[in-house]
Amino acid sequence: MTADPLAPYAPRPTAGIAAATTELSKVYGSGDTQVVALDRVSIGFREGEFTAIMGPSGCGKSTLMHCAAGLDAPSSGSVRIGTTELSTLGDRQLTQLRRDRIGFIFQAFNLLPTLTALENITLPLTIAGRRPDREWLERVVAMVGLSERLGHRPAQLSGGQQQRVAVARALASRPAIVFGDEPTGNLDSRAGSEVLGFLRASVRDLGQTVVMVTHDPVAAAYADRVVFLADGRIVDETREPTADSVLDRMKRLDPRAR
What we know:
Layout: E1 17-28, E2 35-46, E3 50-54, H1 61-68, E4 76-81, E5 84-85, H2 91-101, E6 102-106, H3 117-127, H4 134-143, H5 159-172, E7 177-181, H6 189-206, E8 210-213, H7 217-220, E9 225-230, E10 233-239, H8 243-253
Parallel strand pairs: 3-8, 3-9, 6-7, 7-8
Antiparallel strand pairs: 1-2, 1-4, 4-5, 9-10
Helix pairs in contact: 3-5, 4-5, 5-6
């Protein structure tokens, strides 16, 4: 049996925290052109919980997600996935960790047009040289309602169906955590509600951990908690959100949301 090259870096439960940042800062430029995108942000994302990140445009919410997911390197501070400190990994190890331990869902569906839905879903596993867990894969595919569409290519699917494929792809490897960057931004309200329902179900029924950046109070209301950023800092948090309660907080942070 071939040893897992990431075994020493495998995330293990730490008091139920799937991912965390500590004193995380991200600075772009220098001198007069310096922009502080994140200013000493410390936050934990609990296992089996759905967290939404919100805030005014330019507040640092996407930067926080990109740093927490290992897609961007912080200027200072630390990021952990499970017990793995990302700064201790080389480029190859970080690539393996992102591929094997993290799921991604983006506003652009990022599907390969020449592959079928099933091939797109299993692509990260194929690249990793791993066989999918058939029982888990069937469960995920059934949850997102794609059982009758697995042989279709992206051009044969609606936008909502394509994003369902992206959700299934993110879940197929049973990642420690799934990050979504405006995952319903390119969808109409009905398709967006379906995708958000699938993410909610993945937390409730599959025990998945989900972190989603969104500007939409209705989308945020699907989460267990909402974290609010302003000027690169966490300024508020609410649990059991409703669309109205989220909108009220956003209005206080950003007059343009009125």
